[in-house]
Amino acid sequence: MAAGSIFIALTVFFNVFGTFLARLHSQQEKIWLLAFALASYTAAFVTWSKVLKYFDMGFASSVTTGTILTLSNVIAFVWLNEVYSVSKLFFTCLIVVGVVGVHASQ
Asked: How many CB atoms lie within 10 A of CB 56?
């Protein structure tokens, strides 16, 4: 399971990094940001295919999606100066609870 967990971490990293770069591209309109974002999404797709060799689709999908959404929200608030409301914080916490619950039930 250690290799599967590494592939989950890589999938999350490449997806969140790609989203971050795509958001920066929308602000700065530098083509190299978009190119790196697409490369990052491609790497996320490759590592995702490896994740599915180690975990069931339901588990892998819920853990990666929840983690990606949570990290993307945190990065958007901290580094991209996006507005973060109490309701967003509440629902992000629910996502974290869901990810922990799914992971604990595995």
From this structure: 10
pLDDT digits (tens, 9 = 90+) for 13-62: 999 999 999 999 988 989 999 999 999 999 999 999 999 999 999 889 98
Q: In whole angstroms, give the CA distance from residue 73 to residue 70.
A: 5
| DSSP H or E segment with residue 84 | none
Closest CA to 67 of 20, 16, 5: 16
**pTM metric for this prediction:** 0.86
Which amino acid does the sequence have at 53?
K
Q: For residues 13 and 68, is the Cβ–Cβ distance under 8 A?
A: no
Tell me 30's DSSP state: -
Handedness of CA 57, 63, 68, 70 (dihedral sign): positive
Cα distance between the two ends of the chain: 12
Domain ranges in the chain?
Answer: 2-105
**CA–CA separation, 92 and 73 (whole Å):** 8
